[in-house]
Amino acid sequence: MENQELFVPSVHSSLEILEWLSKEEHKYSTLTDLSNNLHISKSTCLRILKTLTAKGYLSYNSDSKNYSLGFSLIPLGIRSQEINDRIGRAIAYLPQVAEDTGITAVLVKRIDHRLMYIGKQEPLQKIRLTVTVGETFPIHVGALGKCFLAYLDTATRAALLSEYTTNGTFPTYTDHSLTHLDQLLEQIDQIRREGVAQSNGEYNVGINAVACPIFDERKKIILVLGGFTLNPIQDTDKWEEMKKKMIRHAHKISELII
Amino acid sequence: MENQELFVPSVHSSLEILEWLSKEEHKYSTLTDLSNNLHISKSTCLRILKTLTAKGYLSYNSDSKNYSLGFSLIPLGIRSQEINDRIGRAIAYLPQVAEDTGITAVLVKRIDHRLMYIGKQEPLQKIRLTVTVGETFPIHVGALGKCFLAYLDTATRAALLSEYTTNGTFPTYTDHSLTHLDQLLEQIDQIRREGVAQSNGEYNVGINAVACPIFDERKKIILVLGGFTLNPIQDTDKWEEMKKKMIRHAHKISELII
Questions:
Q1: Which residues pair with B67 in a beta bridge?
Q2: Contact at 8 Å (CB) between B69 and A76?
Q3: Facing residue for A10 by CB, picked from B8, B59, B111
Q4: How would you class B48 by CB atoms within 10 Å of its CB: exposed for 0-12, middle for 13-18, buried for 19 or more?
Q5: Could B75 and A117 be called an inter-chain contact, meaning their C-beta atoms sit closer than 8 Å?
Q6: What angle do helix axes A31-38 and A9-21 make, rounded to 10 degrees?
Q7: In 10 A of CB A39, how many CB atoms?
Q8: How many CB pairs under 8 A join A and B?
Q9: Which pLDDT score is estimated for A2?
Q10: Residue A230: phi, psi to the nearest 5?
Q11: Which GO terms describe its molecular function (chains A, B) (predicted)?
Q12: Cα separation, B44 vs B66, whole angstroms
């Protein structure tokens, strides 16, 4: 928070509660869970929970003593899509991407030094990859992170990367993670030349990703269109075809939102 | 609010700000607008606005000095649909209703003594009726209100109606509004027999509506499926066909969400 004076702790805590409950593994949490994990005193936490529940922003199950996200968030979310209509239009396009490519299509947006899934569409298959909308991940990982970084100006990119590097080295997530800043910068050049990023289990073992930038009217990157698949990256023809499709869809979305 | 002690004023104010900004006519509001209309002191209001903006729940336009709903609400809304999955599934069905009937399809849910639009789908026509998701209206008006009341138990219905009646008389909104409780109770009997409610400009001049109940697994009404049209109710054949379609769709939704 930039300015501590212009900051209401209880409002901030209520947002943290909503965000916590939006995570798959915490979608049903008790007062004690929330109070402990978010470091909010139990009495304050209870008062916030009651206030949010009274207006339908949370649901309370008196048998299990669990709180979960309430239905009042649904209309607010839909309205926010309508008002932020470029993002709403981009999200509404995702089913076309999933149908055309047969992979799970996502849109991510930057928040500070992380990227957040703001929309997703899974293909029509019985077993399919999924993500949780609202979840965030480090800005330097996988195809989506590399794609976002590739289209930032050099100073912003350097500042963001300094959050993650120690002596030019990244934390690793899998055996395939990029470990050195040099490696990343090299790939960034290639991504800018080709207009598409790819990754092969760099953040999650076995999951391959492809990502393309979406630009606003000033040609600045505002979103990344990504796709996740279990299909091996080695099957070059299919993979190259998918990259082409993703580039085409990202262009379409850029045009749609201008 | 049931218990003033269990209530955090700044959290409550922040929810009121989000709800205010979700209304079409207030979607861009200044600090002064918000502070005056919601009776929040300017300094508290500014601190709440800054807290909400810092986390992406509001956007601030420094040229116009306007606040509007931010994109962080989008993932929360989508997550709430997923977690409240019966409501999410009902909302996801609306495009089928709009396509099949050619009218604007809505879902409403009760909040206290009002009904809230929690989902909508407009038909594919150049000029079409719309509503704002998140808006509420009195529980006794039009086809949707009558439908909801019809399927409540008698005591709950009487308690809700007492909020609106003075000596058995309702406030009127148009020349076609129901004015007497007796009239309403008579219609309620008919609605229960036919399984569908209709109205003809009772709340908005010229707008006709049709509404059917959606039940949970205990056969309690939890949502109302409604449709709005400008087509005159007198065109009996078409109207009767539409009512049948709406009954069928409401049944489908009831089955889907159990």
A1: B29, B60
A2: yes
A3: B8
A4: buried
A5: yes
A6: 120
A7: 10
A8: 181
A9: 45
A10: -90, -10
A11: DNA binding; DNA-binding transcription factor activity
A12: 17
Reported CATH class of domain A9-73: mainly alpha
Read off the pLDDT band of B113 (50, 70, 90): confident
State the alpha helices, DSSP H only, in chain B: 9-21, 31-38, 42-54, 73-83, 85-101, 142-150, 154-162, 181-194, 236-257
Sort strands A114-121 and B58-61 into parallel, antiparallel or unpaired: unpaired
Distance in Å, alpha carbon of A206 to nearest chain B alpha carbon: 26
**CA distance to partner chain A, nearest, from residue B74 (Å):** 4
Please state the ipTM of this predicted complex. 0.78
Count Cα neighbours of A258 within 13 Å in the Cβ-side half-sphere. Answer: 14
Query: Which residue type is seen at B156?
Result: T
Of the two residues A3 and A253, the one the predictor is more confident about is A253
In B39-78, the residues whose Cβ lies within 8 Å of chain A are 44, 46-48, 50-52, 54-57, 59, 68-78
* CATH 1.10.10.10 domain span(s) along chain A: 9-73
On average, the pLDDT of chain A sits at: 92
Q: Which residue has the higher pLDDT, A127 or A178?
A: A178
Q: Where in chain B is the domain with CATH 3.30.450.40?
A: 84-257
- Residue A140: burial class (beta carbons within 10 Å; 0-12, 13-18, 19+): buried
**Interface test with chain B among A78, A82, A110, by most B beta carbons within 10 Å:** A78
Q: From B114, B226, B210, select the one nearest B164 (Cα to Cα).
A: B114
B-chain CB neighbours of A69 within 8 Å are 76, 79-80, 83-84
Confidence of residue B2 (pLDDT cuts 50, 70, 90): very low
Q: Where in chain B is the domain with CATH 1.10.10.10?
A: 4-73
The answer to whether B227 and B253 have CB atoms below 8 angstroms apart is no
For the segment A215-221, the average pLDDT, to the nearest whole number, is: 93
Give per-residue pLDDT as tens, B197-237.
999 989 988 899 999 999 999 999 999 999 999 877 777 88
Q: Tell me which CATH code domain B4-73 carries.
A: 1.10.10.10
Residue closest to A71 by CA, chosen among B13, B117, B141: B117
Rounded to a whole number of angstroms, the CA Rg of chain A reads 20
For A61, the token pair is 């199950």
The distance of A22 to chain B (nearest Cα, Å) reads: 6
Please name the residue that has the structure tokens 């229960």: B192
